[in-house]
Amino acid sequence: MEKLYTASVTAKGGRNGHIKSSDGMIEFEVRKPREMGGQGGATNPEQLFAAAWGPCYLGALGAIAEREGVDVSEATVEVHISFNKDGNAFALSADLDVHIPGVSTEEAQKLADKANHACPYSKATKGNIETRVTAI
Fold first, then answer.
1. What per-residue confidence (pLDDT) applies to 60?
2. Domain holding 68: CATH number?
3. What's the confidence (pLDDT) of residue 14?
4. SS3 string of the chain?
5. Average pLDDT, integer, range 105-110
6. Are residues 66 and 30 in the same domain?
7. Are 48 and 37 in contact (CB under 8 A)?
8. What's residue 70's pLDDT?
9. Which of 5, 29, 80, 109 has the greatest CB tally within 10 Å of its CB?
């Protein structure tokens, strides 16, 4: 594998801490959400994961759609990352709701599934977290 780019972020303090990227483009506090017994008021790892997965997924969708001659320039994906209790442990799950204007739901689902197979984030999580991809 040839590395094309490496992102570096330093985290301190866990779920109630601070993160900063090596280039300074990202620097902010993180807080455990109120729903998990935290104080909230700042972003959290699940939001950051969803924020990263969405654009990567749309990039994969764009590449696949271009090969198939479909315009997905107005497509959106809403990524939901859930933090779940699994017995005595915790696990993440993901729901990706994909909207592709101008194509049938059936065609959108086919493109959405192909993008899910091609997206590096989707590949990284395959078999590791429960993921649902739905054309809406």
1. 98
2. 3.30.300.20
3. 96
4. CCCCCCCCEEEECHHHEEEEECCCCCEEEECCCHHHCCCCCCECHHHHHHHHHHHHHHHHHHHHHHHHCCCCCCCEEEEEEEEEEECCEEEEEEEEEEECCCCCHHHHHHHHHHHHHHCHHHHHHCCCCEEEEEEC
5. 98
6. no
7. no
8. 97
9. 109
- What is the pLDDT, as a whole number, of residue 22? 98
Distance separating alpha carbons of residues 41 and 21, to the nearest angstrom: 20
Whole-prediction pTM:
0.94
Q: What is the CATH number of the domain that holds 22?
A: 2.20.25.10
Q: What is the pLDDT of residue 112?
A: 98
Average pLDDT over residues 56-61: 98
- Please tell me whether residues 56 and 96 are part of one structural domain: yes
**What residue type is assigned to position 37 of the chain?**
G
16 close to 9: Cβ distance less than 8 angstroms: no
Confidence of residue 72 (pLDDT cuts 50, 70, 90): very high
**CB neighbours of 98 closer than 8 A, spacing ≥ 6?**
57, 61, 75, 76, 77, 108, 111, 112, 115, 133, 134, 135, 136
If you average pLDDT over every residue of the chain, what do you get? 97
